[in-house]
Structure formats: structure tokens, C-alpha cells
Write a structure and sequence with these properties.
This is Serpentine Receptor, class AB (Class A-like). By secondary structure, the protein is mainly α. The chain is 79% helix and 1% strand.
Length: 330
């Protein structure tokens, strides 16, 4: 069998797989929904009333995070639309994609998910500074947020470059657009392990900062209302960002477990099954949908909680005032 005939046979097997077709269709549908939600979330991040409870630096960092989802999902939509079109319309021998096209789309695809993974480190730095400067931080500008956004793009650029160092540019066509070869460890897996480690470390630091803010609030109960408001704002952000860290870490753990399975058993699987599982392991659009809904609900809950806690502090101020007033007359 000639290489050309073998290529045609491979495409016949892939395009005829019901599991792979279902997977691509699901990922396409979830990408379309996620893209819409990311656009709405990005707009709401600057205009919604609940977003006003966050410091502008947090908003900037999250805007880059949503942009990563936008870039990933938009390129995933193009990739999966082309795949489904080819599987349904073209002849088997005409289905393979050019390596150049795969690279152009995949590099944006990977850069987007690297931006998503690069959010944790800048947020840890921003929240640390917000904690040590809690009394004055709410009045600061957006310089730190811009710097953290540059850091996010820098991390994503470096990891994307490293991921594509061994991309098969010499091959004119690819049966399926992916930089991961069946049964082999590549730079992409190494990067995801690093991202996973960053999520775990970030989660631990978030917990430390949250506990620190709780202690600061307990110590400063007699401070001015404005200082306590700043502390409550920081605590509210930490509650939401703890959820974010949990979601990030949980998703990356599931992602890596899928990869470990594919690395161990990938060589024994059919190519169509392997590629379908590969797509399921990197369900970033589904993660985007879940994280947006969860963070929105958490932010709304924290908004109500912040209002109640400030009312308690204001009541405490009045009680302290009348207590001190009565003492002055006794």
C-alpha cells in the first residue's frame, strides 16, 4: 500500500467513527456557547453592578483570562467546523489538512489555553499586594493590573513557543490537527504538568492569604469603617478567587489524568478513539461555561454577604459610640 493509499484509509477510519464525530460535534456546540458567554462575561466585567465590587486590577487580569477562552474557543470552532465539513462532504483522500493550516489554528488554540492557565500566578501576586496594602489598596490605580496582564501574555507566549518546538512542519499533511502524537510524551504534556503544579501552589497561597485577611479583619474591628470596608472587599475577592483556584486546579487534575491514560494506553487504542479522548481531555469550552456560571453566582452571594457584614460594622460603630458617650457622663 502506498503512503497516499494509507493516508486515504486513515481518513476513512477517522471520518467513519461515530464516537469521534459525536465528540467533535459536542466540542463545537460547547465552543459556540462558551464563546457567547465569554463575550457577555467580558462586557459584564466592566459594566455589571456586581463587578464593581472587584478592584480594577482583578478585572484586568480576568479580562485577559476571558480573552484566552475567546481565542481558544474561536479557533476550536473553526477547526471542528472544518473537520465536520470534510467528514461529511469530501472524499477520504481529500480530507487531510495542510500542516500550515493546522499550525496557524493550533498555535492560537494553544496560546489561548496557555493564557487561561497563566492567570493563577498574576492573581496570586495581585492578591498578595492587595493584602499587605489593604488599607490603601482600594484607592490605587490600574498600573499593577496592566503589569500582571503583560506577565500573563509573557507566560503564555513562552509556553506556546515551547509546545511547538517539535511541531511536524516537514509533513505536508496531517490526518488530524494536533501536536500530540499517539503514545508519545511531547512538550505539550510537560507544559500542562507545569501548569498543574502552578494551580496547586496557587491554591495553597490563596488559602494562606484568605486566612491572613480573616486575621486582619479580626484585629482591626475597632478601625475606621473605610478600613474595614477595604478588608471586607479584599475578603470578598478572596472568596471568589478561592473558587476560581478550586476550578482551575480541579480541571487541570482531570486534564492530566486523561493525559496519563492516553500516554499509557494510547498506543493500544484506535486512532479515532484516541483523538476523541484527546478532545474530551481538553474540554476548555465546557470549563469556561462552568467557571463563568459558578463565579457569577459566587460574586452575587459575596455581594449580599458584604452588604450584611458592613451593616453589622455600622451597627457596631453606633453601639460603641453610645457606650463611650454614656461612659463620659458617668
Amino acid at each position: 500500500m502506498t503512503p497516499y493509499q494509507e493516508q486515504c484509509k486513515i481518513m476513512e477510519s477517522l471520518s467513519s467513527s461515530i464516537f469521534l464525530r459525536f465528540t467533535i460535534t459536542f466540542q463545537l456546540a460547547s465552543s459556540l456557547l462558551a464563546l457567547t458567554m465569554v463575550i457577555v462575561a467580558s462586557y459584564s466585567l466592566w459594566t455589571a453592578q456586581v463587578a464593581r465590587l472587584f478592584h480594577v486590577n482583578v478585572i484586568i487580569i480576568f479580562q485577559v483570562h476571558w480573552f484566552g477562552f475567546f481565542l481558544h474557543c474561536s479557533n476550536r470552532i473553526v477547526l471542528h467546523t472544518i473537520d465536520l465539513h470534510n467528514y461529511l462532504i469530501l472524499d477520504y483522500c481529500d480530507m487531510p489538512a495542510s500542516t500550515t493550516r493546522c499550525f496557524v489554528l493550533r498555535v492560537q488554540y494553544v496560546f489561548g489555553l496557555c493564557l487561561v492557565g497563566a492567570t493563577t500566578i498574576p492573581l496570586v501576586i495581585e492578591r498578595y499586594i492587595a493584602t499587605i496594602k489593604s488599607s490603601k489598596y482600594e484607592q490605587t490605580g490600574c498600573a499593577l493590573g496592566i503589569y500582571m496582564a503583560i506577565k500573563q501574555f509573557s507566560i503564555a507566549t513562552m509556553t506556546t513557543y515551547y509546545a511547538f518546538l517539535i511541531f511536524p512542519f516537514k509533513e505536508p499533511f496531517m490526518p488530524y490537527c494536533t501536536a500530540i502524537k499517539q503514545g508519545f510524551v511531547t512538550n505539550v504534556e510537560v507544559i500542562f504538568h507545569i501548569i498543574l503544579l502552578a494551580q496547586i501552589v496557587g491554591r495553597v497561597i490563596f488559602q494562606y492569604l484568605f486566612n491572613l485577611n480573616e486575621r486582619l479583619r479580626a484585629k482591626q474591628i475597632t478601625c475606621s469603617l473605610s478600613n474595614r470596608y477595604s478588608l471586607e472587599q479584599n475578603l470578598k475577592s478572596m472568596r471568589t478567587l478561592k473558587l476560581f483556584a478550586n476550578l482551575q486546579t480541579g480541571f487541570q487534575v482531570i486534564h492530566i489524568m486523561f493525559f496519563l491514560f492516553l500516554l499509557k494506553f494510547g498506543a493500544e487504542l484506535e486512532s479515532s478513539t484516541y483523538l476523541a479522548l484527546l478532545e474530551w481531555s481538553g474540554s476548555y469550552p465546557l470549563y469556561a461555561i462552568i467557571s463563568i456560571v459558578a463565579l457569577l453566582k459566587k460574586a452575587q452571594v459575596n455581594k449580599v454577604r458584604l452588604k450584611k457584614e458592613l451593616e453589622v460594622h455600622m451597627s457596631a460603630d453606633q453601639n460603641n459610640y453610645f457606650e463611650n458617650f454614656n461612659k463620659s457622663w458617668n
